[in-house]
């Protein structure tokens, strides 16, 4: 009489082993983007409660930015990136350059590394002049970017970061997709629980 062990070993020996199906490495992982990248970025970010403004000139951008910032006091608007500070000063847009956040800060203006059309995401890094706080602390986050910073997919953005910084990569690279959001409490969607409650992207 065969032992249970022998029976199991015989069954395993007689089992047919089929080769797994060969992976398809040629079919694209993502769906193709059929429209201009800036339009696709706008559509996908607005799906998750972000706001995107497309402009042809800096004049148009700064005029719209002035309207958005009208409700805030200059001392409560933070901007720490020299290139953006120069743009704001050129159009007489008031802001604070203080190294220490005003506890009443209402809006933070930053640049970004890349904008990702496929997901409507903003890629930022700790190497930017505002550091990590500017992307988290102000309740309203305003990003000023150029259309050349819009890429198709996440992998293109990461490749761009590596190409840009080479052996001096930032200590943190973060992907922002819309305002901060959570539904932890009673499954009710709350914006701004862990970061900015508004995200505005100005794209020229």
- Shape summary: elongated
Mean pLDDT rating:
89
Largest sheet: 5 strands, parallel
Find the structural class using helix and strand composition. Answer: alpha/beta
Number of distinct helices: 5
Strand order of the largest sheet: 1-11-6-3-2
Helix content: 25-40%
Oligomer: single chain
Give the strand tally: 11
N-end to C-end Cα span: 82 Å
Q: Which stretches of 5+ consecutive residues score pLDDT under 50? A: none
Instruction: Note the beta-strand portion.
Output: 15-25%
Q: What Rg do the Cα atoms give?
A: 24 Å
The helix-strand sequence is HHEHEHEEEEEHEEEE
Give structural attributes:
204 residues; alpha/beta; five-stranded parallel β-sheet; four-stranded mixed β-sheet; 5 helices; 20% strand
Describe this entry's structure for a reader.
The chain is built from five helices and eleven strands. The mean pLDDT is 89. The longest helix is centred in the N-terminal third of the chain and has 12 residues, at 58-69. The protein starts with a helix and ends with a strand. It is an alpha/beta fold and 204 residues long. Strands 1-11-6-3-2 form a five-stranded parallel sheet, sandwiched between helices. A four-stranded mixed sheet has the order 7-4-5-8. The relative contact order is 0.18. Strand 2, helix 4 (82-90) and strand 3 form a beta-alpha-beta unit.
